[in-house]
Structures are given as C-alpha cells and as structure tokens.
C-alpha cells in the first residue's frame, strides 16, 4: 500500500545518513554487500552492520509511528 511506502520513506529520513545510504543501496538499489561496500568505500562487514542497524532503527521508528497513529 502507498501509505506504508510513505511511512518507510519518512522513517529512512530519520536514520543516520550512513545507515540510510547503505540500506537504500542494498534494498532499493539491489546491490550486493560487496557492491555496496565498493560504493561506500567500506568493508563488507561494515556494510552488513550498517544495514542491520538501519533495519533495527526502522523497526523502532515505524513501531513508534504506528502506535502514535493508533492512540
């Protein structure tokens, strides 16, 4: 649904820029961890950690936003 994409887009804007960029390249850009590492000039393990932390942050942000809308 369109509203979900809007929520995710807003949540991405609230992430640390480095995490948001790594997440966007991996998920929306379809790049592998190795390719993303090359673009960002980081190691593969650093990219994996950035994406992991971005997902964790997104879950927290979206969970908070959904609870606020319900309340």
Key structural traits:
4 helices; mainly alpha; 82% helix; 71 residues
General description of the model:
The chain is an all-alpha fold and 71 residues long. Helix content is 82%, strand content 0%. The chain is elongated, with a radius of gyration of 13 Å. It starts with a helix and ends with a helix.
Helix segment count? 4
Query: How widely separated are the two ends?
Result: 21 Å
Instruction: Tell me the Rg in angstroms.
Output: 13 Å
- According to DSSP, the number of beta strands is 0
Helical content, roughly? over 70%
Strand content: under 5%
Multimerization state: single chain
**Order of secondary-structure elements:** HHHH
The assigned structural class equals: mainly alpha
Coarse morphology: elongated
User: Would you tell me the overall average pLDDT?
Assistant: 91
Low-confidence stretches: none
Largest sheet: none
Question: Secondary-structure map with pairings?
Answer:
Layout: H1 2-13, H2 17-27, H3 33-40, H4 44-70
């Amino acid at each position: 649904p369109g509203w979900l994409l809007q929520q995710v887009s807003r949540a991405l804007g609230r992430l640390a820029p480095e995490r948001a960029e790594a997440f966007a390249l991996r998920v929306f850009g379809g790049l592998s961890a190795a390719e993303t590492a090359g673009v960002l000039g980081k190691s593969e393990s650093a990219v994996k950690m950035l994406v992991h932390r971005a997902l964790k942050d997104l879950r927290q942000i979206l969970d908070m936003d959904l609870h606020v809308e319900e309340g």
